[in-house]
Amino acid sequence: MFHWQLLTPLLLITVQIYEAQECEKFTKLNVGHAFIGTSLTIRLLLYTRENGTCGSLISHTNISANPQFNLSRPTTFVIHGFRPTGSPPVWMNDMTEQLLARSDINVIVVDWNRGAATSYFNAVKNTKKAGANLTAFIELMQEHGASLSSIHMIGFSLGAHIAGFVGSSLNGSLGRITGLDPAGIMFTHSPPQDRLDSTDAQFVDVLHTDSDSLGFREPLGHIDFYANGGTDQPGCPKTIFSGESYFKCDHQRSVILYIDSMTQTCQSRAYPCSSYKDFLNGKCLECDQFGAAGCPVFGYDVTQWKDTLLKLKQTKTFFTTNAKTPFCMTNYKMDVMIWNKDVHWGYITVKFHYNGTETVATIDHAASEFKKYTETKLLAQFDKDIQKVEKMSLKFSTGNVLKPKYKLRVLRIRLTHLEPEQRPLCRYDVLLEENREVTFRPIPCEVPNF
């Protein structure tokens, strides 16, 4: 009996500690819930550096009930989209982890799975209701001392428009809204008040990855990034036989690219252009309008260009990626001049070699025209960067199987790294036989005299 009297208080303390440390989880539903339909419920899950993997539920009416919610910190809301299977978003934990790794902030995961796991039509109807709910909560935050300028909302798909509705209700006072492939279905051709718009926050940045299917095609923010043209993403299935991945891979790539941008392993420079075709053809590689900072870098850190982008009002940019992380590619401007008498059309593959490592750029989106004593400008995008170029390989091809093999007589080839501190590389007087790779050492470029 004596021992039990000693142990009872310890057991009570243990239970209390367990209850205090119990973590709130994102609502887990299934296809059955989605098929029947769910009514809208908003749960706000708070994560901080003190509880980075253990969410705590925030009261919509009593903010002070959660002492971890420090309103002197900036706050980032993460809002998911339509949930046709009812399962939690697979990317949510990674997003939260990377946000907290970058800044000492409050991360609030907006769990509206009950309301998103239903028919798409009903989920769309719930977006304005969800926006109204979040607006009331942010107004309560403001009453307790939070600054609207320190609030960042990151919304994926339908979540991007929810963020827009909140921002609009607060008269564009939010600091930043990031739209990750905002939903296009039932929002395309809608007026600004019925979708995300550049007036919804002090700064709005948008990424497009599936604009030909589930995403929104037209620009929506102060800066709009079109990854790989904003449509088909490398590494995603090309046929319906791949199952559900065929439908969601391009759309969901927006979240994966954004998370990858926060790791700072490499950067994806984005170039202002009117079309992806012109970008690939090397017609949009000038960055003078952005000053010494150069063209904007996609992702979390684009706020470094905020002041310039606000003056420009709307900037549409393009960049390309690899099929998997690290997604960043390394860009060179390539100028080719030939001295063949006849005009030739074809494709160029370039390889850089250093210390047993190689990186490849294949310029095959369209056949390029090569004309005597005329400089052909190309964009060479390498799958990775290397420290130094020891050797370079070139291959010319036409794609014509039945016609005679051509020889491209190159008077000069020049490759200029698009990061300005890099020195251009050249080679003079090279003979390229079709489909045969030629390897040589590049040399520093001479001052052109023709």
From TrEMBL:
<dbReference type="GO" id="GO:0004620">
    <property type="term" value="F:phospholipase activity"/>
</dbReference>
<keyword id="KW-0442">Lipid degradation</keyword>
<comment type="similarity">
    <text>Belongs to the AB hydrolase superfamily. Lipase family.</text>
</comment>
<keyword id="KW-1015">Disulfide bond</keyword>
<keyword id="KW-0325">Glycoprotein</keyword>
<dbReference type="InterPro" id="IPR000734">
    <property type="entry name" value="TAG_lipase"/>
</dbReference>
<comment type="function">
    <text>Hydrolyzes specifically phosphatidic acid (PA) to produce 2-acyl lysophosphatidic acid (LPA; a potent bioactive lipid mediator) and fatty acid. Does not hydrolyze other phospholipids, like phosphatidylserine (PS), phosphatidylcholine (PC) and phosphatidylethanolamine (PE) or triacylglycerol (TG).</text>
</comment>
<dbReference type="InterPro" id="IPR033906">
    <property type="entry name" value="Lipase_N"/>
</dbReference>
<feature type="active site" description="Charge relay system">
    <location>
        <position position="251"/>
    </location>
</feature>
<keyword id="KW-1003">Cell membrane</keyword>
<feature type="domain" description="Lipase">
    <location>
        <begin position="38"/>
        <end position="327"/>
    </location>
</feature>
<feature type="active site" description="Nucleophile">
    <location>
        <position position="157"/>
    </location>
</feature>
<keyword id="KW-0378">Hydrolase</keyword>
<keyword id="KW-0106">Calcium</keyword>
<dbReference type="GO" id="GO:0046872">
    <property type="term" value="F:metal ion binding"/>
</dbReference>
<keyword id="KW-0479">Metal-binding</keyword>
<dbReference type="GO" id="GO:0016042">
    <property type="term" value="P:lipid catabolic process"/>
</dbReference>
<dbReference type="InterPro" id="IPR013818">
    <property type="entry name" value="Lipase"/>
</dbReference>
<feature type="binding site">
    <location>
        <position position="197"/>
    </location>
    <ligand>
        <name>Ca(2+)</name>
    </ligand>
</feature>
<feature type="binding site">
    <location>
        <position position="195"/>
    </location>
    <ligand>
        <name>Ca(2+)</name>
    </ligand>
</feature>
<protein>
    <submittedName>
        <fullName>Lipase member H</fullName>
    </submittedName>
</protein>
<dbReference type="InterPro" id="IPR016272">
    <property type="entry name" value="Lipase_LIPH"/>
</dbReference>
<dbReference type="GO" id="GO:0008201">
    <property type="term" value="F:heparin binding"/>
</dbReference>
<keyword id="KW-0964">Secreted</keyword>
<feature type="active site" description="Charge relay system">
    <location>
        <position position="181"/>
    </location>
</feature>
<dbReference type="Pfam" id="PF00151">
    <property type="entry name" value="Lipase"/>
</dbReference>
<feature type="binding site">
    <location>
        <position position="200"/>
    </location>
    <ligand>
        <name>Ca(2+)</name>
    </ligand>
</feature>
<dbReference type="GO" id="GO:0005615">
    <property type="term" value="C:extracellular space"/>
</dbReference>
<keyword id="KW-0732">Signal</keyword>
<dbReference type="GO" id="GO:0006654">
    <property type="term" value="P:phosphatidic acid biosynthetic process"/>
</dbReference>
<dbReference type="InterPro" id="IPR029058">
    <property type="entry name" value="AB_hydrolase_fold"/>
</dbReference>
<feature type="signal peptide">
    <location>
        <begin position="1"/>
        <end position="20"/>
    </location>
</feature>
<dbReference type="GO" id="GO:0052689">
    <property type="term" value="F:carboxylic ester hydrolase activity"/>
</dbReference>
<keyword id="KW-0443">Lipid metabolism</keyword>
<keyword id="KW-0472">Membrane</keyword>
<dbReference type="GO" id="GO:0005886">
    <property type="term" value="C:plasma membrane"/>
</dbReference>
